[in-house]
Amino acid sequence: MKYYADFENKGGNLYSGEVDLVDLARREGTPLLVTSERRLVDNYNSIYESFSKRYKKFKINYAVKANSNPTILSIFRRMGSGADTASMGEIYIARFSGFGSDDIIFTPNFAPRETLLEAYRMGIRINFDDIGQFQFIADIKPRHASFRINPGMGGGEFPGIVTGGHDTKFGIPEEHALRAYKLARKYGAGEFGIHMHGGSNNLSEEYFRLITQKFFGIARRIMDELNIEFSFIDIGGGFGVPYREEEKPLDMERVADYVTENLKNIIGSEEPMLMVEPGRYLVADSTVLLGRVNYIKNYGKKIVGTDIGMNILLRPALYGAYHRIVVANRLDSPPADTVRVVGQICENTDRIGDEIKIQEASEGDIIAVFNAGAYVYSMSSNYNGFPRPEEVLITRNGEIIIIRERERYHDLISGATLNRYMF
Ligand SMILES: Cc1ncc(COP(=O)(O)O)c(C=O)c1O
Question: Ligand 1 within 6 A of 61 CB?
């Protein structure tokens, strides 16, 4: 029986393809992140095919922030993806994963002058977050200028992941957009791009119709008033995935239809490159996080204590996010218990699920958390002295490979120095 994405119930255990994940967790140890390459490929193809059959000049730049494992980046690179980066550290990871400067786009927020100069000198295209950010490097007369425009609206699953609209720190408000491009032209820029990103995890197709209509309208006005063309129009990421059982997946064909129709109607025949920066959509459901039940406490409210806490899965503590959780070795039993699932962290926000129904669990059972591919490892920490988990990939032909080793205790003190006078 299929559970979710590439994960299914075979004889009561959770499997991905032919791989018994309960067995894998017991062999490799927990916590463990297991990624299905096949699902990464299917997700990439779903966006690429929906858009490229409607609009030829189309490019995906995978948003590295969602999951920066170099093997995962390389899988997308080999499929033709570029990399969307938010920091010099992400640029470093993208280059390590084989992306050339031409295939990296940099969308920083409040970056210092030195970082912008360094990225420009590396030949990386920058989506400037503000007019003053462009002015930081204006003296070297950049040939190319692209700005992140805040289209005055946004959308996302939680207020914390809405990045467009009137109460955010991102981009240039639409009423100042013209001034940005005028200035860039004054400093000699001759090639232009335009960017927006309205927020993350949107499951409404209509949202993409409305926000691109607004954004392309802004782009059109800039083109008309300044008599310029855009070599690319970048609509960011934000394509959602279902986290709750009752949610419906995004209809990517319909999203692509809305976006490309808007582009053709509003921008017309100039044919800029249409770019998207999906993070979550490409990686979230490719990965499951496996943990072990350590102990159960029951004084009225049943608390299932595991080796997965907010140090690995921060999203529930950060936004109240929901992740579906199952007992991976008891899938044949119906979910019977309403419990809180926690880790070992000394914070009362250390909950990875609350008031959730799962199969009755006992010490030593393996739990599985779905949608663990996006904003999980990349948001994890060593808080309370826990090493980060191992990451494994199940390749398209069923091989199991370790794509990042489990951290060891010595990683917790890496870079630390002890002053001998302290003894
Ligand atoms: C500029 C930019 N592009 C792309 C993304 C990826 O968003 P998502 O994972 O929702 O696709 C983000 C996420 O915050 C972002 O800030």
Answer: no
